[in-house]
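Lab manual, section 2.4: Encoding a predicted structure.

Procedure: take the sequence of the chain (271 residues), apply the prediction step described in section 2.3, and record the output as structure tokens. A sample record is shown.
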Amino acid sequence: MRLVQDEYDFIDTVDSIRSVGGASAEWLARTFDEQHLDQIRETAFLSAQSHIQEVLDTKVHETDSDRPLPFKTLRLFPSVDITELGKAEYLFKFETVGEEGPFGHTEGNTPPKYVTDRAISVGREHDFDRLILQYHQPHTPWFSKALAEDRDLKYHEYDWWNYYYETGDLESIWEAYMSDLRFVLDDIELLLENLDADRVAISSDHGEAFGEYGILGHKLGSLHPQIRTVPWVITSAEDNGTYEPTVEEPNNARMSREELDEQLEALGYKV
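Recorded output:
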């Protein structure tokens, strides 16, 4: 985040905090826990990450014995049911990997525009104590450069682990990652101009390792400093009415286990 700080007026100071999770599923289980039920009931959570269904809705970590052991240990953290939230939206259902749409790439995951659009709508129409937005970027497949150049994804953009093992080329990987970081920050800039909020925190559920201590990526349960240390930026937002959202509220009907597994595998997760 500090590398792009000068490119965005809304980023004044970049601090850091320690995330409660080494992966999105762990962050979800430990953030939406029963200890904070009163606050959670006054919270709207809009997520482009399908783990929201797995952890807070179907709770497969409690019921599916075939899941990897680290995932099953999430049952040690008593998380609330999805119905306890003031509002929840399954934005991961928009433009999933392999699906065509107006904002993203067929080989990419849910683009940030869906989160921004729905956040502006929910912020204008409701008055929750807090609004938590979970964008998917920057997360593989990194597709922003391919989208801008109207081309297919390159090897390092959809399978950077094997690309790195075969080539040792970290520069191309880093450029793709930073491109997707800017991709989502551009949307956050639009969001901050169309939402009223005295205090906005910009952070991440987890970080990413790029070879430090021999580790690539992120994984559940990791204590790696590059994965657990995440940025913390405080700013504010003011609705200037410069943008009118067009995305309708999604149907929160559950995806099938097969559909979820296909999506998670396309994003690099083992299921």
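Check your result against the sample. The chain has twelve helices and eight strands.
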